[in-house]
TrEMBL record:
<keyword id="KW-0418">Kinase</keyword>
<dbReference type="InterPro" id="IPR019539">
    <property type="entry name" value="GalKase_N"/>
</dbReference>
<dbReference type="GO" id="GO:0005829">
    <property type="term" value="C:cytosol"/>
</dbReference>
<dbReference type="InterPro" id="IPR019741">
    <property type="entry name" value="Galactokinase_CS"/>
</dbReference>
<keyword id="KW-0963">Cytoplasm</keyword>
<dbReference type="GO" id="GO:0005524">
    <property type="term" value="F:ATP binding"/>
</dbReference>
<feature type="domain" description="GHMP kinase N-terminal">
    <location>
        <begin position="88"/>
        <end position="175"/>
    </location>
</feature>
<dbReference type="Pfam" id="PF08544">
    <property type="entry name" value="GHMP_kinases_C"/>
</dbReference>
<comment type="similarity">
    <text>Belongs to the GHMP kinase family. GalK subfamily.</text>
</comment>
<dbReference type="InterPro" id="IPR014721">
    <property type="entry name" value="Ribsml_uS5_D2-typ_fold_subgr"/>
</dbReference>
<keyword id="KW-0460">Magnesium</keyword>
<keyword id="KW-0479">Metal-binding</keyword>
<keyword id="KW-0119">Carbohydrate metabolism</keyword>
<keyword id="KW-0808">Transferase</keyword>
<dbReference type="InterPro" id="IPR013750">
    <property type="entry name" value="GHMP_kinase_C_dom"/>
</dbReference>
<dbReference type="InterPro" id="IPR020568">
    <property type="entry name" value="Ribosomal_Su5_D2-typ_SF"/>
</dbReference>
<dbReference type="Pfam" id="PF00288">
    <property type="entry name" value="GHMP_kinases_N"/>
</dbReference>
Length: 383
């Protein structure tokens, strides 16, 4: 790209600082966050980089995606939803900041990304948190990291329309290097667990597909869980979310709760229990058990929650006959994106070859393989 293909406000750009906003992985605990349950995510070393400077105007904002060569210009007094999805992550965050009574001024921002979009590693949460973190620094707003996570989640609800939970934003901004976060999404209590995989690594295999069902089905699942709660709540008024239900209590509703709602709730309640068991297994250094729980999680997501797809199932199934992989599952919202594999370090190369050949033969796509490690949440480096 030459200087003259870059929009005018970004020529000879002198940034004040760069924000590094990471994607996330999730070891176990899928679709539990919006049910007030448990998750076990962490940030990774793949980031979105956002170069910021104030432009000393009261209201004019310029944002340029260098990676996708797209330019967004807007006025702080007139923010509304856009037809371009990527713009809504930015507009939504700025608007949510304003709603909190904080007022950024004009700024310019260049964005570069090495986070694949649609891979289920939360490029959207990284973008939201990165914008909020940068504006917080640039204009000395008084936002805590947790407030940034929450307002970014709200931006996704109100501007993008996905009624997501808090996991992605929380882990993008509050992770610690070398640790997993056991996050209790009911009260946002975080316990940092040292990620000690003893000779094993985390390997992502990107299916390269991102089925369009993802967002609409996501909101449908959330509604189904809320309906199940409403039903149970009639008999047990203290039940405010599926987090307040255990398997024994749920079983009382086996014959009365509509079958689909029962199945969805059964997945969520079981998954919450699995997260806690997985943390225990990790503390006991029992990676076989940890891996088993990952497989159970996948089975629940595939059969009960029905958010997997044939490409994800294929990659998970492959691992069951390959001993060095201790556990594998689909990761994130589903309908495409990555699988996460807990694999013996010295088998990674061989496994990537086996998986790539098999996947290529079946789907005519080479899956991208990414070895990841737990990294710190959003940070900035000054010029
Ligand atoms: C997406 C959402 F954004 C998260 O909040 C979470 O629900 C996840 O899907 C599934 O666990 O990434």
């Amino acid at each position: 790209m030459t200087e003259d293909t870059v929009p005018e406000p970004f020529r000879n750009f002198k940034k004040k600082f760069t924000v590094y906003a990471p994607g996330r992985i999730n070891l176990i605990g899928e679709h539990t966050d919006y049910n007030n349950g448990f998750v076990l995510p962490t940030a990774i070393d793949k980031t979105i980089k956002l170069h910021f400077r104030a432009n000393h105007t009261p209201y004019t904002c310029n944002v340029y995606s260098k990676t996708y060569q797209k330019y967004l210009k807007f006025d702080l007094r007139q923010i509304s939803r856009s037809d371009e999805e990527w713009e809504n992550y930015i507009l939504g965050v700025v608007n949510e900041i304003q709603k909190l009574g904080e007022y950024p001024e004009g700024f310019d921002c260049i964005i570069e990304s090495d986070l694949p979009v649609g891979a289920g590693i939360s490029s959207s949460a990284a973008l939201e948190c990165g914008v909020a973190f940068g504006l917080n620094e640039l204009f000395h707003l008084d936002l805590s990291r947790q407030a940034i996570a929450e307002l970014s989640r709200n931006a996704e609800h109100n501007y993008v329309g996905t009624k997501c939970g808090i996991m992605d934003q929380y882990s993008s901004i509050l992770s610690k290097e070398g640790h997993l976060i056991l996050l209790d999404c009911r009260n946002l209590e975080a316990t940092y667990i040292p990620a000690d995989f003893e000779g094993h690594k985390l390997l992502l295999l990107n299916t390269g597909v991102s089925h369009s069902l993802a967002s609409s089905e996501y909101n449908t699942r959330r509604k189904e869980c809320e309906e199940a709660v409403k039903f149970i709540n009639q008999r047990y008024p203290e039940v405010a979310s599926l987090r307040d239900v255990n398997l024994a209590r749920l079983a009382e509703f086996k014959d009365t709760l509509p079958e689909l709602l029962y199945t969805r709730a059964h997945y969520v309640v079981s998954e919450n229990e699995r997260v806690l068991k997985a943390v225990e297994a990790m503390k006991q250094k029992d990676l076989e058990q940890f891996g088993l729980l990952m497989y159970q999680s996948h089975k629940g997501l595939r059969d009960e929650y029905q958010v997997s797809c044939k490409e994800l199932d294929f990659l998970v199934d492959l691992t069951t006959e390959y001993a060095p992989v201790k556990g594998a599952r689909m990761m994130g919202g589903g309908f495409g994106g990555c699988t996460i594999n807990l694999i013996e370090e010295n088998a990674i190369e061989e496994f990537i070859k086996i998986a790539s050949e098999a996947y290529q033969k079946e789907f005519n796509i080479t899956p991208e393989a990414i070895v990841v490690s737990p990294e710190q949440g959003t940070y900035l480096i000054k010029n």
